[in-house]
Write a structure and sequence with these properties.
This protein has four helices and four strands. The chain is an alpha/beta fold. The longest helix has 12 residues.
Length: about 90
């Protein structure tokens, strides 16, 4: 039996929406369990659209959850270093 990797999606803009669709319905072995976006209302809308219970306007909230194994980062390029460092510090893949 394959273990399911629980994914948190950080950023739900145009690219993040594509990831949300793929991770929530088209990729085997993963479960999209949380989304975050600096625009909290966008995170909430994405969570509702994809049936995800956890959403936040602060990506640190997603990183702090022990129910998240790994993250997909779909934020603007200029934020990647900060977010990747935070994800590594939180021991997320």
């Amino acid at each position: 039996m394959q273990e399911v990797v629980r994914i948190g999606l950080i950023g739900v803009g145009r690219i993040g929406q594509m990831y949300a669709r793929l991770l929530s319905s088209e990729v085997e072995g993963v479960e999209l369990v949380a989304v975050a976006d600096a625009r909290g209302e966008a995170a909430q809308a994405a969570a509702e659209r994809h049936g995800i219970a956890v959403w936040s306007g602060d990506y640190q909230e997603v990183l702090s959850r022990n129910t998240v194994d790994a993250v997909v980062i779909a934020t603007p390029t200029n934020t990647h270093v900060e977010v990747v460092k935070a994800a590594a510090a939180a021991k997320k893949q």
